[in-house]
Amino acid sequence: MRQRALLARLVLAQGRVVPADTLARDMWNGNPPSSARTQVSICVAALRKLFRDAGAGDDVITTTAPGYRLAPARRWTDLAEFADRTGEGYELARQGRTEQAAERLRQGLALWRGPAFADLTSHFAELEAARLAQQQMLAREQLMVLRLELGEHRSLVGELTALVRENPLREQLRASLMLAQHRSGQRAEALRTFREGRALTVAELGLEPGAELRAVHALILHDEPATLAEAGPALPARTGRVRTPSQLPADSRVFTGRRNELRYLDETLAPRDPGRDAPVACVVGPPGAGKSALAVHWGHRAADDFPDGRLYADLRDTAGRPRRAAAGPVLRGFLRALGVAPRQIPDGLEERAALYRGLLADRRVLVVLDHAGSFEDIGPLLPGDGPGRVLVTGSELLMDGGTATTLRLGGLAREEAVRLLARSAGARRVAADPAGAAELVGLCAGLPVALRAAGARLAGKPHWTVADLVERMTDRRRLLDVLGHGENAVRASFDRALRALPRHVADAYARLGGVTEPAFDVWTGSETLGLGLREAEDVLERLVDLHLLEVAGRDDCGALRYRFPALLGLYAAERHAQRSRAVDWGREFALAVPGGGERRVPETVAFREQTGL
To answer: What pTM was computed for the model?
Structure first.
């Protein structure tokens, strides 16, 4: 039980060091024995063994004077995830994004599996459990409000009735129930709900109902459904934490390596004196290289350098395509996060950008712009003169060297790649076969997305060894299938990147997938693409800029040669095969219809219909 109490206390510290004396005081409810520090050390050793046996390594609990620290900080705990999800939900609701806000709150509430710390009797655990129960109820109340806004009043009546019965003095729940009943045509029941609540409040507290509940009652009496939403329960009040936005997504718990790249970002984006253009760092590289993970990880790592907030925007839609005209909505969200009331946000893009630059003129804010597709995506989102910093991720260089520096990201070094594999699959399994792990890293080309997929595959197959996975991956025809594990699927990552390309570039990439030589020159590219030498060279260089091709050197005549990066070459071959099948299908279709001998379906049309490109 004391081990559980100690672990709970470290979890609640959210990555901060807890002094050994504090642990002893809390574990023994303020009356620790003389041997408390020794027993704390014994409990820590036992917990470390439990984590080590579970494959989590020795560094989960670290000794840091004057006590101990849970090394994964906030990101491994349901507690932190609940706080993050509900915080995002509240902010999305303030931005008017009701559906997304409701989904975030649902995700946060789904983490609950019963009362917090139910098996602990320590005073600190009881106090924290009461606080968390209050946070849970606030989130449930807000979710009810959002579901009412989404028109779910009929399905909410039963759920809210049960909640009000369990929590009869919570006026926000009662107001939501009254609204749901009234909108469902149950006006009499809504008024009865108010009378019951009023009688209970007067009897138990000696008070009349609050202004919010009375306002809902008055509107129901006057049958004014159009204004009911305005009288409903309000969002939690803004706090200083909201006006100092912290919008970065959760840091990956398996992020590994990139020491040099992190040092480069430290030096490039280090706070400097105001009065100069905001430094911008662009992280570019092939799909699956971990550009977003690096940006988010560095943002969390450098959070203390940006006390005025961290803004984040994903400039790619859910299908993987760059968002058109994204700057306007993103600016609106940024301005709301910075405390600007909705009615004070200008309609025009230029006016919004000017207001945004003015707000950031003297604020040390980090702006992370993820998956940028063009300078038009990010231009209005760049702060002007001031201490702010901008970190952009994308497939290619978007800005000139006068205002930005570029960090080109490739695969992980072997040692870093093995560590990432160990953190994903389990340290003991990887350590048991170092040669197999090295071969697996090579088959993954050091790409983080492939290593995470391989690690997830191993984690999901506890009866496999590293050698078993290596054997399956040595068949190049099946390699991408083997690495097709859920959100870490390599093919899905490449699909998203290809969908973001202009159609003619994606089509050229698929055509070049039919080249069988390890490296090829511009003449081969010209013949494959059906273009002149100059036009073919332009296409090849465009693919190099996008990190979908790489330069393999020069031949004996000095001509450049090109090649596909390892996994991208397999993917290109797949796309070429799909394209060929689509073209054959188009020809067969053309011959099958009346007059088919004279009608032809363009190859690109057939290909797009089959592949979505």
So the answer is: 0.56
